[in-house]
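INFO  loader      accepted 1 record
INFO  loader      residues=883
INFO  predictor   begin
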Amino acid sequence: MPARFGLTHWQRIGLVFSLAIVLGEVPVRTADRFDFHSIRRAPDLSGANGRFEGETHFLPHGNARFQGMRGYGRQWSGDAHFLWDGVAGQEARLRWILGRRSRYRIVVQLTRAPDYGVCEILVDDQATGVEVDLFSSRVELAPAVTLPAVSLDAGAHILSLKLTGANPEAQLFKNKGYLLGLDYFQVIDLVPDPRAAARKPAAAGRDVAVAAVAAVDQAGAQRLLTRFCTECHSGNEPQGGVRLSEVGRGSLAQVPLAGIEKIADALAFGAMPPVDADQPESQQRRSLTRFFERQLVKRTARRESVAPTVMRRMTRYEYNNAVRDLLELKGDVYPLPERTLRAYHEYYRPATGMFPERIRVGNRTLGKNQVEKDLLDGVSPFAIDLQAEHGFNNRGDQLSLSPLLLETFLKLGKSIVESPQFREYCRVYDRLFVGAAPRDRGRDLELGRQRLQTLLGRAFRQPVDRVTHERYSAFFATQYDRHGSYTVAMKRTVSGILASPRFLYLVEPGGATEVAVPLSEHELATRLSFFLWNTIPDVELGELAAAGRLSDPAVLRQQVHRMLTDTRSRALAENFARQWLRLDQLITAVPSMERFPHYYSRIGCEQWKFGLQMMVEPLLLFESIVVEDRSVMLLVDSNYSYRSDELQSWYEDDVPLAGKGNVNRFDTFQQEYKRRDLSTRRQGGVITTAATMTMTSSPLRTRPISRGAWVATVILNRPPPPPPDLVPEIEADDDAIEANGITLRERLQQHQINDACVSCHTAIDPLGFALEQYDAVGRWRETYRSGLPVDASGRLFGEVEFSGIEELKDRLLERPEIFMRAFTEHLLSYALGRPIQPVDRPSINAMVRRIAADHGRFSTVITEVVMSRSFRYKKTDESRRQP
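INFO  predictor   done
INFO  writer      dumping tokens
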């Protein structure tokens, strides 16, 4: 029976190494399994990090709620505060967590207004001796209140505001009580931890201890191949074009790297030999896989090379960020639906190491409130950049600059600086666009030259040569003489800079030979900044690059830490996580309104989909992992999630959103998402979210093959090949299938019409059927609508059995290197803007060992990507190498 090499067109290589090792280990008992929830960064209360926003830390009780405060001015932190109302004797309560025992001082910033009362402040139900009258004839911030110093243990604490009465002049609220408002409270550690606040990255070379799997020698490999493979892979026309009958005589030297990878893949995943052929024992399979893995390492090590990165232009998202940071704008340049989460307060503060317990956000992509308030009139985005089939939208081979798009950029740059709001929107307007007063041509031209020197360096991400500087300065002078205005001349010049290929393109000069050289300092700064922030390097990165210090490993690690604790690291969730999880597929998901009526809410004349709330959940989980520096294994299985009350009803209630009709069934503008402890492992992580389940289903039923392909692509980084063109569709409605007394699983097994189908489906079907107990909109079920039982059992990689989603999670948690490798490959591919190549394999192997040793800590994954040879090196022509 011929082996089907079509399966090994799965092109995300690298899992082979970890599979060959970890599948041979004795499974870890649940009681002994490492608790990945124990990995997290200690909260940092230094400086402004010790500020706890009232609107994100209040406990749900009584009439406690969030209130936006922008209508009363801009003095409230995050433009919002915590609001509560009650009667004398009742309390408003807020909760926060401390990372260690120490002595603290607490400063409380309250709001006062005409209907606010008098409150006593307590800490952990203990009186502080502080009482505050919050009456005022207008809505304003009260003077900050400092509480007496107090010793507090590590863990959760409660700040209480007890309503004791009111000022005689205060007005009753709703004729029965008074309001209390809290902007934030600041917790100051009076005995700072002598240890470094920043956690040190995992030491280079620290590896995880794993059971060794010996590779067979060349003679042993030939014996196994002769027994199991050469029936199909010999002769003049071997299957897949791969001849395995003469490995002992050096025939592998003629097989390209991709071919060796295909062989190793097929062995590791049980795709070769075919399922109906004689199979090697587990130890034989792993040893043979390791043999081919070593062949790859030897071949790539001799090259000491890296794959070339294709020159590319910025994506729409990156262009927005780059212009925003270059001109120091107050917000985005244009509406960005791909920036999914619209925050209604400043909740993302990674420097603190603490993610809030409640967050108020909207969904730009699917929600009603898609357009930002702080935008420039007359500025429209260019077309969205499409995501690669098994990658991201920053692939150089897909980001070209057509004449039409170049014209768009010319108009776009001009529309930005000519927008009516631009002066107020640009923080550096006076320093860049305003000339000498009184007007003086000589002084204005000199000012223009000086300012352009700095601006061009930042825009082009490298020192500007004299010729380029002179060309832009001459253009500025021409425009100045033509219009008689410094401002007009500088706006014309800046709009030209924003349309320049040197601004739009990320370029690392070099050829495509086998010689690898380090990135230049400025190239490294650019690659790092676009990886973590999706924007141009900031001043600190630029200065380090100019001083030749950024490439120093210690400095580079420090910069990774600094950038991850900067608010701009949110780009990893907004751009990387959204694409990695394929969440845009949820936009086109259309569950049947008749079968799943609760998925829809009519607002006016339009039907809105509940997917707008589903999409937020995995993104907030990802952000919490980034901010608190948790293990990436929580993406597989977590004991908490962030959900709105309506989304919680979707998971927990027999009838979701019960008692609500189609009209205004759920909120399509904004929702409050709360951190919720999960009571079952059927939930948790990203695999089992309602978002994933819905977007991998058809209108009337689940699609196990699509779900399996999603797991193979996203979680394992093993995307399956596309199905053959002529495969007929099966019934669109599972009711029609069950009417014949069979389940969807049994129907799909009937549908596998040839050996090629069986080969691929053996790998992906178990991953999809593990999720079959979730219906087409992500709700749990034990049986189908007909009453037939759901079978969610399967076999992972042809060896490891599981009986449902919880056991599938267990298998992945018992072998964490599998997901860690896949996630690392996704990140590296995203960072480089290209697919992973065979020459990346040695770097990835070393990275995964060190990441596993640190239990998958997020910052360690990022640091290992940045410190890898693949990230820090490029290809160049031999003639360009410096002596």
